[in-house]
Amino acid sequence: MGIATINPATGETIQTFEGLSDAAIARAIDMAQQSFEQYRRTSLAQRATWLHAAASLLVDERELFAKTMTVEMGKPIAAAVAEVEKCAAVCRYYADHAEQFLAPVTIETDASHSYVMYQPLGVVLAVMPWNFPFWQVFRFAAPALMAGNVALLKHASNVPQSALAIADIFKRAGFPDGVFQTLLIGADKVAQIMTDQRVKAATLTGSESAGASLAAAAGTQIKKTVLELGGSDPFIVLESADLETAVATAVTARMINNGQSCIAAKRFIVQESIADAFTQKLVEKYAALKIGDPLLPEVQIGPLATPAILQEVHQQVQDCIAAGGKVLIGGDPDAVPTRSDPALSQGNFYPPTIVANLPHTAAIAREEIFGPVAMLFRVTDLDAAIHLANDTPFGLGSSAWTQIPAERDRLIAEIEAGSVFINGMVKSDPRLPFGGIKRSGYGRELGSQGILEFVNVKTVWVK
Fold first, then answer.
1. Catalytic: 262?
2. 157, 179, 274, 408 - which has most CB atoms within 10 Å?
């Protein structure tokens, strides 16, 4: 795939870019290593000053950065502005808390003095996705740079302007040359970069296949990786739930980022006694959603990022129907939806869709649908809800709704996921660790745990 900005709402190619040559990649790695040798000696206070400056640039120019994201991958403009502001927040969080997280920890032993200290690893490669073009990068970069590492960014090929803008932010914030570099390259160059001994570790957010490929390349070199991969998050609604709030949150939880989020609620598991009421309310709210040009502030659902994603989502809905599912609203099984609307005919638009009656055993019921499609399941009780929630190869996030403490405690203890949100929507927060289990990946970003992923945890013993 070429490196280009193609507006997903219109199909227009706005700008194309030439990928870096092998020689240019080698020069970038060399610059990163040379920069690291100096940058690792800078004080935490100096790094914090630069990171605060980056946060200020993000806030001051948020409208410009938001439009860049929307034009490149189609997220509604209001959501894009919020994403930029969240990036500023994560910069400020690590600027203010890194010293605490990285402070040496004294441990009493038979030594005169023994303690644990944290030192940066060096050059870290970040392979990032298109769906949150700024947030995914900053949630890695803020803690990694505060820890004293330097970063090479291989961003998704459909968001090159976002990738270049991020590198420019760090440069203008005052970070030394080479501390953060964007590499405009294809996925085929990642394994090659991992063979360079100056590259010490890597992180990837993306698909299972991309994660497996990076992990394999890093494994042959015995290098640390952090992977945040796909998800098929359950959204469990039990009889005691606040139904109105649960339904309203369900819409937001599924439609965030046009449905293209790893932690979007994807499987709605509803107790039989309230399933009819929940379904009716959910269909009504889906019908009221406004789909269209994501640059318009009133639009809630924009296009999917690429034509290939549109076709995949359409095929998955057809697979649901073939397996016995019933479309309650949205997708047409016979043609790519929204093509009949002239205003949407050139873009990668797919309507908000709900599929019910899908057998639990259907293969598609365990897949991740990366678009505005909800799979709706009915269960008899809490036991059945937990069993179905866990009946997936993924384990990223989960949301559950109940007012009964005993049910809450079982959901927290028994759901197999990196996070459990009770009576709330799954979201990432700089203060809390973020990541998954099973095929959703390993390692953690954010929180105090996130900054320690790419450090040498060094034991010191002095007699």
1. yes
2. 179
